[in-house]
Amino acid sequence: MPKKITIEPVTRVEGHGKVTIHMDDEGNVVQTRLHIVEFRGFERFVLGRPYWEAPVLVQRLCGICPVSHHLAAAKAIDMIVGAGNGDGLTPTAEKMRRLMHYGQIFQSHTLHFFHLASPDLLFGIDADPAVRNIIGVAMENRDLAVQGVMMRKFGQEIILATAGKKIHGTGAIPGGINKNLSIEERDRFLDGKAFPNIDQMIDWSLGALEFFKDYHKKNKDLIDNFAAFPSSHLSLVRKDGALDLYHGVLRAVDAEGKVILHDIDYREYLDYIAEEVRSWSYMKFPYLKKYGKKHGWYRVGPLARLNTADFIPSPLAQKEFEEFRAYNHGKPSNSSMHMHWARLIEILHAAEVMKELLHDPDLQKDDLVVTGTRQEEGIGLLEAPRGTLFHHYRVNEHDQITMCNLIVSTTNNNEPMNRAVAEVAHQYLAGQEKITEGMLNAVEVAIRAYDPCLSCATHALGKMPLEITLFNSKGEKIDQLRN
Amino acid sequence: MMKVLFYGYGNPGRRDDGLGISFVERLERHVREHRIAGIHFDSNYQLNIEDAEEISHYDRVIFCDASFEAIEDFCLTEVHPSDARIEFTMHAVSPAYVVDLCRKLYGQHPATWLLHLKGYEWEFREGLSPRAEKNLEKALAYFVPLLNHLGQKSAPFLPLVLSCQS
């Protein structure tokens, strides 16, 4: 009997999403879709607001990565106030922003690995959901869980010290920043008195990588082949090809590593990238215009970044990067589960970058803001934890925002996540008479690899049930799981 | 003197979702003005795993959150680590999850409550809805007289559980 399986909302991803899988009478998977069910309308919401409010306003978008939106908006507004095109700030301002950004990368990636990914790795995809979370990790491996907690805390403290506040931070302002890092603030990250210091963060980052690599050795098939499919990859890279999560040029490579987008100035992104609307999802589907809707889609995020960059400009992460690239024979990795590997390498890189910045005396200087000739348009891109984040604004003579276009990281990964769902559905569900929770979790594991932030929904008590519903071909509900 | 933490969470850019944070801000202002010792405050967009470490430093913790539930105005429930469940946004975690993680990682946990503040509107706007504002005032009126007692170990403890049945 044909079946329609609905997983709603997808667990362990931010916001609302659901997956539908249609199967025919023979148990073949005939269609899979990842639906985004909440429409945010944020781009319309900011219209009419003064442009200088944008870096604070956009933090309403997301309680997970407000810093990424804060900084991407600030970069766009820098252009509007004539403070350059992402590279015109004072050394103190740019380095403070970088410290904030790498703190965000560090804490976000850490949450993903320790809280969302490691339980699947420790206990297996089909394990009881009651243990497939960090509390399960704590019972199994307390040291690993404590490290995850303290690494998160370290990243959050970096954000607090640079953004000024945990909520609606104001650190980045048009043309610069509003504070430097005092010696006292800096020393908290170096002396290890209030919490483990930056050297400990680097050691723990290396430890997490070893944990993953050891797991990989024992589970090669899962890590290399689960939800693996060829795709293009897109990210910012520094002008010399280095991994750079704060600023750079746009590069894309195809599944074999051929460069298909040649280090373009990101202000020209509209010449190269378009977004397709599909009737069944509120989330758009970006693609490279040159290759069309069918072939122009691409992945973003840690895996894409390691596939597009030529090298990582920090020694320990570079060593890991070389191992990663060698394992993949110098070609891009197209395995969704290698996203975890790439994410861990970026955690290490972020820790190294933070250490370098914390020892940089520019952070204690007072030259915080530059100004220039007012412009009518600003575009800011950066590499957020989940991938390339686009902020684009136009303003009128009254300083009001008249146009806002955002392409958030998860939107860039829309098609890849749908592909991942399809791959796993075919791999795990096709031909099965009984659909188990483990099979459905396999679908979620594939989505989770991308760490999607589906919407920045309110989280108020009572709003977020999990429902898995099974329909027959007549649309009749034949089974439902609710937690 | 026992260490007490009020921890508000939510997104103040989503109207009533900011109830918990507004509550903490208002209460903190009162505590500062009246120089009440032993009461600490924190807030964030949402709870997460590192909060297990933070609450391990306190004796009593009161989480404050906006509520979508069918309650009248506000209510208070005890948080038991045994109630920890997998959360379904999972970039955020529940109070019970934080307390349970605290217990498992640090061997002890504070006595913990959750203040549920009824909200109504959740769109992209700063500021509480008028009805949510009233609920906030009611909750403040309940807590302010208790502040001087919250940190006292020997004092007969508060009637600190209010039914969430409407």
Give me the number of helical elements of chain B.
5
| Major beta sheet summary of chain B | 5 strands, mixed
Strand content bin of chain B: 15-25%
Strand segment count of chain A: 16
Overall mean confidence score, pLDDT of chain B: 86
Uncertain runs of chain B:
none
C-alpha Rg of chain A (nearest Å): 22 Å
Helix content estimate of chain A: 40-55%
Number of strands of chain B: 5
Order of strands across the widest beta sheet of chain A? 3-2-1-15-16
Major β-sheet profile of chain A: 5 strands, antiparallel
Low-confidence stretches of chain A: 9-15, 455-471
Plain-language structure description:
The complex is a heterodimer of chains A (483) and B (166). With 483 residues, chain A is of the alpha+beta class. Chain A has a domain at 3-38 and 416-482. In chain A, 42% of the residues lie in helices and 18% in strands. Chain A is built from 17 helices and 16 strands. Chain A has helices at residues 42-45, 54-57, 66-80, 91-123, 134-140, 142-163, 183-190, 198-218, 220-225, 269-272, 292-295, 302-308, 315-327, 338-358, 409-412, 414-429, 437-448; strands at 3-8, 17-23, 29-36, 172-173, 176-177, 232-237, 249-253, 259-264, 273-276, 285-288, 298-299, 377-384, 387-395, 401-407, 467-472, 477-482. In chain A, the strands form five sheets. In chain A, strands 3-2-1-15-16 form a five-stranded antiparallel sheet, covered by helices on one side. In chain A, strands 8-7-6-11 form a four-stranded mixed sheet. A three-stranded antiparallel sheet of chain A has the order 12-13-14. In chain A, α12 packs across α14 (338-358). The longest helix of chain A has 33 residues, at 91-123. Chain A is globular and about 65 Å long. In chain B, strands 2-1-3-5-4 form a five-stranded mixed sheet. The model of chain B has no long low-confidence stretch (mean pLDDT 86). Chain B has a single domain (4-150), classed as Rossmann fold (3-Layer(aba) Sandwich), CATH 3.40.50.1450. Chain B is an alpha/beta fold. Chain B has five helices and five strands. The interface between A and B is large, with 53 and 42 residues.
